[in-house]
Amino acid sequence: MKTIYALLLLLCLTCSLTIGKPIIPVSANNVIDTLIDVGGHRLHFNVRAGTYPAIVFENGGGDNLTVWDGILDSLYKSTGATLITYDRAGFGTSELDSNQISLTQQVISLENGLRALNIEKSYFLVAHSLGGYFSTIFAKRNYKAVKGAVLIDANHVEFWTDKQTKQYWAQYEPLKQKFKTEMVGVYWLMKNAQQNAIEMRKISFPSSVPVIDMLAETPPWQSEDELTRWRLAHKRFVAQAPNRKLIHIKGSGHYIMKDKPNQVIQIISKMYKED
């Protein structure tokens, strides 16, 4: 049944490729790599066809979809799930729509892409770092369809005060023009940092969606104050709903999926199968 389901999904995906220009054709291992028009610009999607819920991955702030390469093969074998990675606007090979670059608008673009790919039934979210913001918005907008989420050392709103936001981006100010020409996605993150923080304070992760919140032993912060507030933000997030669980990952830095790939695969697979 799973094989038939995967083939049907592939058929739907193949039909949808008229919307965007394929980068790589359908291959023997059920992978589609394509650009999809999401309304004025195109986003790069990589889809491994499988069963539902589809696992949608959200990259961190400066990353493209390749950040997940180290766990996808094993996760696909373990779950048989449809795996969806993508580049947000301005990252990887995705185009930028600088007129509609708010966090919510970017989530709407993701939704448009999933709709074009005929992947609308149900979702399971995996988010790293800044990707936590996008998964929060997506889960809020689609709470009935989101069956669960695994957050990997992800952003929580409480940590990002105005002071913290200004301090963080101030260190990159000398590189602003370089980003504008070479890393346009990062440039717009810098430009809209305060706006993004304000936007997220109006949005909360829906309490109906179960969450595993993975916390790195060494998050990406230098001061003891930042480390303490980061850990406290995760602790308080989990305490807000009984279906949330905090897991401390020993021996890991911020990129837990690279430092501890087997542990991440195990946690995602277990929660996915229990859902």
Give your account of this protein's structure.
There is one protein chain. By secondary structure, this protein is α/β, with parallel strands linked by helices. It has a single domain, classed as Rossmann fold. It contains eleven helices and nine strands. The protein has a nine-stranded mixed β-sheet with strand order 1-2-3-5-4-6-7-8-9, with helices on both faces. Helix 2 links the parallel strand 4 (51-58) and strand 5. Helix 3 (103-116) packs across helix 4 (131-141). The chain is globular. The relative contact order is 0.13. Mean pLDDT is 87; it is low at 1-28.
Keywords:
275 residues, alpha/beta, Rossmann fold, nine-stranded mixed sheet, globular, disordered N terminus
Distance between the termini: 19 Å
**β-strand amount:** 15-25%
Second CATH tier, the architecture:
3-Layer(aba) Sandwich
Task: Give the overall pLDDT as a whole number.
Answer: 87
Counting DSSP H or I runs of 4 or more residues, the number of helices is 11
Q: Domains counted in the coordinates: how many?
A: 1
What composes the largest sheet? 9 strands, mixed
What is the CATH third-level topology name?
Rossmann fold
Run of helices and strands: HEEEEHEHEHEHHHHEHEHH
- Total beta-strand segments: 9
| Overall body shape | globular
Low-confidence stretches: 1-28
Instruction: Give the helix proportion (percent range).
Output: 40-55%
Classified in CATH, the superfamily is: Alpha/Beta hydrolase fold, catalytic domain
Strand order of the largest sheet: 1-2-3-5-4-6-7-8-9
Radius of gyration: 18 Å
Q: Label the structural class.
A: alpha/beta
Assigned CATH class: Alpha Beta
